[in-house]
Amino acid sequence: MSALSLVPNADRVAADAAALRAPLAIRGLTVSYGQQPAVFSVDMTLRAGAMTAIVGPNGAGKSTLMKAALGIVTPLSGRITAFGAPVELQRHRIAYVPQRASVDWDFPARVIDVVLMGMYRDLGLLGRVRAHHRDFARDCLDRVGMTDFADRQIGQLSGGQQQRVFLARALAQNADLYMLDEPFAGVDAATEKAIIAVLKGLRDEGRTVLVVHHDLATVAEYFDDVLLIATRKVAEGPVTQVFTADNLQATYGGRLATQQIDRLPGAGA
Amino acid sequence: MLWEALTLQLGYNATLVTVGAALLGFAAGVTGTFLFLRKRALVSDAISHATLPGVGLAFLAMVALGGDGRNLAGLLIGSALSAWVGLLAVSFLTRRTRLAEDAAIGAVLSVFFGFGIVLLTVIQSLGAGRQAGLEDFLLGSTAGMLRADALLIAGGGALVLAVVLALRRPLTLVTFDPDYAVARGLPVARLDLLMMGLVMAVTVIGLKVVGLILIVALLIIPPVAARFWSDRSDHVVLLSGAIGAVSAWVGAALSATAPNLPTGPMIVLTAFAIFALSLLAAPGRGVLAAALRQNRFRRRVHMRQGLLALAHGQPIYEGLTLRLLQHAGLVRPDGVPTEAGQARAARALRDEARWAELRAGPGNEAAAALHDGVRDIETVLTQDQIAEIDRRIGGPRGVPG
Predict the structure, then answer these.
(1) If you ran DSSP here, which 8-state letter would residue A258 be given?
(2) Are residues B62 and B88 in the same domain?
(3) Judgement on whether residues B341 and B204 belong to the same structural domain of the protein
(4) B78, part of any domain
(5) Which of A98, A114, A160 sits opposite B385 (nearest CB)?
(6) Is B237 in the same domain as B303?
(7) What is the maximum span of chain A, computed from C-alpha positions, in angstroms?
(8) How far is it, in rounded angstroms, from Cα A230 to Cα A264?
(9) In this structure, what is the dihedral angle of CA atoms B195, B199, B204, B209, given to the nearest 10 degrees?
(10) Is B352 left (phi over 0), alpha (psi -120 to 50) or beta?
(11) CA B200/CA B197 separation, integer angstroms
(12) Residues B45-96: pLDDT tens digits?
């Protein structure tokens, strides 16, 4: 989008309207903690049915962007729509997987209880948990390979298993847009494979997946699209076009040596 | 006398007081569970101490208007208003200044309590205030409680209980994972406020029975005791309510057996007895169960060491190890492994290799932390996680016969 366009504003808004029907569209988002902007004037449009990674250095505002899109942190400015409507009206179509470390795993709950939390809407305030609810929750656990752990206390799980339980809770929402914050941080190789398989399965069903991701080496292998941010947006688009040495240099600055970039799979110069 | 008190044979009013106290105890235990799990238990201490100025001011206002200063409903409304101001003060100090919540609680608690004590002293020196009995609000007293008072307490307890049970799902979600709750569209800030409002309601209606100094115990001890018995939040909630109800029932009955025995301390001591029992005897998290587990662990260590010695063809010197192996039919009396012993030894060796691989690799800190030398890896990892490890360490190795 060129900054100095001669097209009148109304026309630009109209042209943008199509984009605003996207699973997630963010316009002019700024979030600051104190007087320090963590995300500054970011636009992004998520492509439906694609797997997109948010990539950037530590402190680049990756998680903050996702939390602001979900209303967990309040932005200073910006407009967020999901599926063509304000995001607050579309929450039932969005499943969020927070960072594993954001909760206390000594909480008195079994694995199946956490998955049932994902079915909060179906259960309602007073409705009983019925056999078909429990069966569906077990299906979700099965998809992440955790069926045998349904009755375990959640404090007894490994990091990878905790992440799988969080994913199962999101699956139980049966959503159209899945947003995951660092799902591969501190998990074992088998769990990473299992999670990627589930996410690719969701994409192949036509759902949209957005992941805050920190491992540059796997971006090209796992994702279709990528958003590069360092407080401001550096680039967004298909991995094959955007995940380039120049863009990475612009995102990471001196923190990433040129040789490192050359070794990255998919990061063409 | 105690038996009569416990079985509600001390007349209509005493019965009403005991039942009212039990309902209050149930409501406090249930509400307190969410507070405890949200790690905000101490806020209730600030709320309860902040009620005191309200009690004093309400008394003065009612006397000045020519009414009866001891009217319980009026005193409770006054205490609720000043508790609300205290709660706002804690929330303001925490959000708008750099003070941490514990410091804000300490500041609000002491200032409000100090102001309340000054008011009470002033009231004592007034002619009208001498028989006001306001000091009962400090430690609680059911003596001389009117029927209307007891009904007010029972009704309030029932109302709080109904609200908490109706909202248990959203409250649980907010307590476990507030960010996820926001993303699901739950009004998290309002639910947190409601939780504080319920705590305030329990505090205010519990003032007469338990007293403001000790009401915090009825909110915190029951959930802490209940947590020993269950790993499911819905069970902890109900169990905590039951513990609160029993404590209040027994405590109220105990205080009825002797004149001038304050009700609050009796209730708290009963709750503590239940807590101590839970700490000792609860399966799983209790102290005795932990000791038994330790002993079982010792035997499993010996068994494992023996099996690994067999796998490596080393001699075994430990008497306990040999006895355990023989008893399980894994070695013959002359120390030679049986066929079953060889198979078990091979499995132990493989398990060791898998654990070693798990602990060497990244990303499995939590599972690796469960490594205690005797636990089978199958109880810790999923099948595909084990398959991944096996892929890295290669096929099974034989054992020397």
Answers:
(1) H
(2) yes
(3) no
(4) yes
(5) A160
(6) no
(7) 62
(8) 19
(9) 150
(10) alpha
(11) 5
(12) 999 999 999 999 999 999 888 888 888 889 999 999 999 999 999 989 988 8
Does the interface ipTM go beyond 0.85?
Answer: yes
Residue B60 lies in a domain: yes
Domain count within chain B: 2
Q: In Å, how far from its chain's centre is CA B250?
A: 20
pLDDT digits (tens, 9 = 90+) for A149-190: 999 999 989 899 999 999 999 999 999 999 999 999 988 888
Contact B232 A91 (CB under 8 A): no
What residues of B are in contact with residue A63 (Cβ under 8 Å)? none
The answer to whether residues B153 and B83 belong to one domain is: yes
Which residues are within 8 A (CB) of B348 and not within 5 positions of it... i.e. 6 or more apart? B304, B307, B308, B311
CATH of the domain at B238: 1.10.3470.10
- Residue A59 in tokens: 């402190």
Q: Do B109 and B80 lie in a common domain? A: yes
Nearest CA in chain A to B165: A126
Query: Are B94 and B33 found together in one domain?
Result: yes
Among candidates B169, B233, B366 on the partner chain, residue whose Cβ is nearest the Cβ of A158: B366
In angstroms, the CA A73 to CA B380 distance is 36
User: Are B243 and B271 a contacting pair, CB within 8 Å?
Assistant: yes
The rounded distance, in Å, linking the Cα atoms of B121 and B48 is 19
- Residue in chain B nearest A126 by alpha carbon: B166
CA dihedral (B198, B204, B209, B212) in degrees, to 10, reads 110
CA nearest A186 in B: which residue? B363
Q: Same domain for B114 and B247?
A: yes
Please give the single-letter amino acid code of residue A90: Q
Calculate the average pLDDT of chain A: 89
Structural domain of residue B325, as residue ranges? 288-398
Q: A50 is written with which tokens?
A: 């694609």
Is B283 part of a structural domain of the chain? no
Q: Which residues of chain B lie closer than 8 angstroms to A194, CB-CB? A: 384
DSSP readout, B258-287?
A: STT--HHHHHHHHHHHHHHHHHHH-TTTSH
Confidence of residue B245 (pLDDT cuts 50, 70, 90): very high
| Number of neighbouring beta carbons within 10 Å of residue B329 | 12
Separation in Å, CA of A79 to nearest CA in chain B: 17
Q: Which residues of A61-78 are buried (b: 16+ CB within 10 A; e: fewer)?
A: bbbbbbbbbbbbbebeeb
Return the SS3 of B326.
helix
Joined tokens for residue B259: 């004149």
